[in-house]
Structure of Kynureninase:
Amino acid sequence: MSELVMRAEKLDAADELRGKRDGFVLDDVVYLDGNSLGALPAVVPGRVEDVVRRQWGELRIRSWEESGWWTAPERIGDRIAPLVGAAPGQIVVGDSTSVNVFKALVGAVRMAGEGRDEILVDATTFPTDGYIAESAARMTGRTLRPVAPADVPGALGGRTAAVLLNHVDYRTGRLHDLPALTAAVHEAGAYAVWDLCHSAGALPVGLDEHGVDLAVGCTYKYLNGGPGSPAYLYVRRELQDRFDSPLPGWNSHAEPFGMRGGYEPAPGALRGRVGTPDILSMLALEAALEVWDGVPVEAVRAKSLALTDFFLECVAAYVPEGRVECLTPVPHAERGSQIALRCDDAGDVMKRLVERGVVGDFRAPDVLRFGFTPLYVGFADVERAARVLAQTLG
Amino acid sequence: MSELVMRAEKLDAADELRGKRDGFVLDDVVYLDGNSLGALPAVVPGRVEDVVRRQWGELRIRSWEESGWWTAPERIGDRIAPLVGAAPGQIVVGDSTSVNVFKALVGAVRMAGEGRDEILVDATTFPTDGYIAESAARMTGRTLRPVAPADVPGALGGRTAAVLLNHVDYRTGRLHDLPALTAAVHEAGAYAVWDLCHSAGALPVGLDEHGVDLAVGCTYKYLNGGPGSPAYLYVRRELQDRFDSPLPGWNSHAEPFGMRGGYEPAPGALRGRVGTPDILSMLALEAALEVWDGVPVEAVRAKSLALTDFFLECVAAYVPEGRVECLTPVPHAERGSQIALRCDDAGDVMKRLVERGVVGDFRAPDVLRFGFTPLYVGFADVERAARVLAQTLG
């Protein structure tokens, strides 16, 4: 048995989160694509069945009250809150990430006021944030300026209304410095909007602690909410009264069943709601979040770093030097919970890897992405993934 | 046995759609709230279980291709199309009705061009359309003017960019004249946006035939998609190249997996997509739509009118004159698939009705709403509902 296999065994034996794997439906595949679609939590199928057969099928319309459907967006928001370092009452769940980026960015620009005419956006962002930011800029009469996150401090100024940044880069897995960048944005008198898609559930975010203004994120990656499960919107408590949504649907009205012609926004986080919540997907997510009971995000972060460290070590040991280039930063402070490897034939390599039972994903044009979900990925998985990768590249 | 009970029996015996009721999970309640939340189609629980356990749980990320997740919005759109009189390739499913109203109305205003600075909105609309229209007007620099649908022809002019109308009034059940109003809007050189929430699945809409420009609708009422199931957006084929979405998320990109920084809209209806589709809710809807196999909308309309006629007759026979006031027009050409009765104590009355097994809903401040879903409501239900209503009002 190789030294790395033995190391993996020891690391797994000492892993405090090991038992959490039983909370998921998994097979003998090494699933390193939880940063795209999280695995199925074992509690979800039964819950969804209850929602469909009993809550919808038997109680029908009564479930809006009796099964807590109407309050699901804020209730589930409060369940996500501790995972991203937020006190209750600041997050609502609903709509897609793209729609929430629109709400958050337009909301931030409106808070900044007329005098500030520029929006900065992460130039390396997952594309949808850039497209939506362009629309938000166009519809609020601002200019959009793409800037690499590292260059944001130098680009800030009296013109800056808002800055839209990714906590972790979807492609490279680079973790950006949320506390420092948020502080810089505030120093310039602007508003910081963070996209947490690739960090929530994988590492501490500290929204409240670092004074983030608005944030959005999806729930189908490290939060395991299921395919296309609803995203969420965080609006810092102090800003909620000033949050002026571009999508003031009836669910955000102070009195939604008053059926009033005039719009009067609800107080608090509810103001981020729009239309009727998507109950099946939303309650599947609520069930999925139960796997987090008793799991400190700090423990998840520690294991995530140990997993990615170990993967890099195994890749270095197994893969011939120069065959792949690691795009993910080595320093822990700059690393999310994925490893991105560049190679020219990445598309083909990923196909063959999947055939051999190691599932990551391919991001055009040349990136192999491997996501490490500490709740269900173990060190033996990591060793096997690197070994099969080396064979595949061979 | 009373004459009306016997009539109900005969009508049920002659009902061609009667067998469709077996396609739903129903109990001994008279469910007249399908215009708020449709009953559970029997095929849905098994389908959802497969989506959760096999597609998500076993295939995981592979399902985006192998289970047809990625193409669900347009595939399900094409399934809704014949129900609203649309040829394929013009409808995508996703997001809430409110979000789709925003896309449609901003899209319409942009088609109309800079010279037209006014949006007309149905003054009697379900509130969310009005709130969202206000936002669309504000964000496109237009003025919003609420107008009763009957007054729209007189309000149209060279300033009119777009008109947002409801096909059926959510409160009164009044059916508006979609062909004539659309023609009037076109004559003024403006764009017609229709909200089909209370008509799709209950009566013929004829989107293509009447040249409607854009339309939106929910799927959880007469289409039985489940609580908060995704809404849809119709963009007439000839206008699709000019549809400029205010929510240009990555799903609407010509090459969504190209991960390009620059936005280039997809051709066709796909342009109406935004973010990652909400798969659980979406595929529940897809299953729910199977109950429509072999059901002509015309047959549904004929039965709907027979049901509401019979309900009015039973109410007239059982309820003391003057105790309730019917807000729904008597002429068939002006009636949707619901009956709205006004009485001062409507809130209390509906509570007691529900306790006695007749489920309608209450709309503030004084309306009892009864929705008639021809696929699962029968004439005996109607007679019983009127009888229990009379006892409750008694």
In short: The longest strand of chain B covers residues 160-166.
